[in-house]
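Comment thread on ticket #2218

A.B. wrote:
> Attaching the input chain for the structure job we discussed in standup.
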Amino acid sequence: MSEIRSGDMAKCTNCGYEGVVRGQPFMGGQKGGGVSAPWCPTCGLNNHLVKSDAPLTEDGWRDQTWDHIQMVQSLLTAINNEINNRAAVHDHVKLQQPESAIFAKYTCRLRGMTYGSDEYNECLKEMKPALDHHYAHTKHHPEHYQNGVNSMTLVDLVEMLADWKAATLRHADGDIMKSLEINKKRFGLSDQLVQILLNTVKEMGWD
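C.D. wrote:
> Ran it. Output below, let me know if you need it in another format.
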């Protein structure tokens, strides 16, 4: 027997109702949600429903469409919750040792350097103990993963791009467009991903 979904036409063998049956969309916590099994609007039971041969009505189609809309809203909310969680704890690990002392020593020096320059890269080598610890504990850096960007999630990429933009504001000559150009080579980013990041920068007014 095929599964009966919210908005389908069904018959109730308990009370004889035949028509549209509805479920209830629900939130399933941080990771999403679903739609409950539909029930009979007359007797309220859901274990006596059988699929009806009657064609789907416009009301039934609207119910299914609203279920879809609410499901997408639920899933987008789950992604938004994860991004908010990332925002709440972003770079907190820098405030602890062994990172705190090293970043405090070098941040002012980095501010006067051009991102990607030989001088900048030499400074990063001196900061290696702090950077190794930082990359190991933060997922928004490609260095966190053995396969770099190819192992990152969309949430990782969103946090990464925000981090790159914020970093440009700490350099006297910071430029997100230039940073993307440099990081394309540094991390082996595809043309398609770079274009998506550029589109996002422009959409957010970060250029």
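A.B. wrote:
> Thanks. Noting for the ticket: Helices lie at 58-89, 99-111, 118-126, 128-137, 154-168, 176-187, 191-203.
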